[in-house]
């Protein structure tokens, strides 16, 4: 039963109770793995399975001899002999030399074909590299030309002798319908609270002041200009 719902129960029982003398300890709380595991001789050596098997068999044979010194060892294993088919080996050894010559000729032809293919691939690769270099050079030349034209245009615009209209009127070049002496409008000329102290009653009556700002002429013009 869990006592997580009463964490202050044990302290409230006080030390006078003798029940606290005997304690129950879980096996998971006991110290374990108190000794390090060291390497033993032979652990780091890489031996094949055949060697390990031979060593195991030798140990079994020694133990059997020690237990039964007079008995014959029944489990003594004789070394296995690999039997080879001598007839097949003789036929392989008696291969005529003409076949070797034919194989050599075929190998030479294959090598020549491989060399031709390699040369063709190298020529194609060199051609692709040359095309890429030419394309890169054309792009660099076009970029240099564009940069030079931009620089010349900037110099011409900055020189008042070459660009007289820009020197006289700035960035705004007058047109035929716009007079030269027209003053430039300010960005806040059409604000609602600008020029409110005018004494012209006709102008005041034309404005049509209202208490609701969403019904003013300024709000209508603003909405028609930007939220159309």
UniProtKB/TrEMBL annotation:
Organism expressing this protein natively: Malassezia restricta (strain ATCC 96810 / NBRC 103918 / CBS 7877) (Seborrheic dermatitis infection agent)
GO molecular function: RNA binding
Gene Ontology cellular-component terms listed: catalytic step 2 spliceosome
Acidic residues bias: start-end ranges: 99-119
Domain of life: Eukaryota
GO biological process: mRNA cis splicing, via spliceosome
Protein's UniProt keywords contain Glycoprotein: no
Region annotation (Disordered) ranges: 23-183
Keyword Transmembrane helix: no
Family: Belongs to the CWC15 family.
Keywords noted in UniProt: mRNA processing, mRNA splicing
PANTHER family with a match to the protein in the record: CELL CYCLE CONTROL PROTEIN CWF15, SPLICEOSOME-ASSOCIATED PROTEIN CWC15 HOMOLOG
Biased composition (Basic and acidic residues): 40-75, 120-141
Name of the protein: Cwf15/Cwc15 cell cycle control protein
């Amino acid at each position: 039963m869990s006592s997580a719902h009463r964490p202050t129960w044990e302290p409230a029982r006080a030390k006078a109770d003798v029940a606290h003398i005997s304690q129950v300890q879980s096996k998971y709380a006991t110290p374990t793995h108190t000794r390090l595991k060291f390497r033993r001789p032979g652990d780091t050596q890489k031996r094949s399975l055949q060697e390990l098997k031979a060593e195991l068999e030798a140990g079994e044979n020694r133990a059997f001899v020690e237990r039964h010194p007079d008995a014959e060892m029944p489990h003594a294993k004789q070394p296995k002999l690999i039997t080879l088919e001598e007839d097949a080996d003789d036929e392989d050894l008696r291969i005529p030399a003409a076949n070797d010559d034919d194989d050599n000729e075929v190998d030479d032809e294959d090598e020549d074909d491989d060399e031709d293919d390699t040369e063709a691939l190298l020529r194609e690769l060199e051609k692709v590299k040359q095309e890429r270099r030419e394309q890169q050079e054309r792009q660099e030349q076009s970029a240099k030309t564009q940069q030079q034209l931009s620089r010349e245009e900037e110099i011409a615009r900055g020189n008042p002798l070459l660009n007289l209209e820009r020197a006289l009127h700035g960035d705004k070049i007058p047109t035929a319908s716009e007079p030269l002496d027209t003053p430039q409008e300010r960005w806040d000329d059409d604000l609602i609270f600008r020029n409110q102290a005018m004494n012209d009653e006709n102008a005041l009556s034309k404005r049509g002041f209202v208490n609701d700002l969403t019904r003013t002429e300024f709000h209508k013009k603003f909405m028609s200009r930007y939220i159309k």
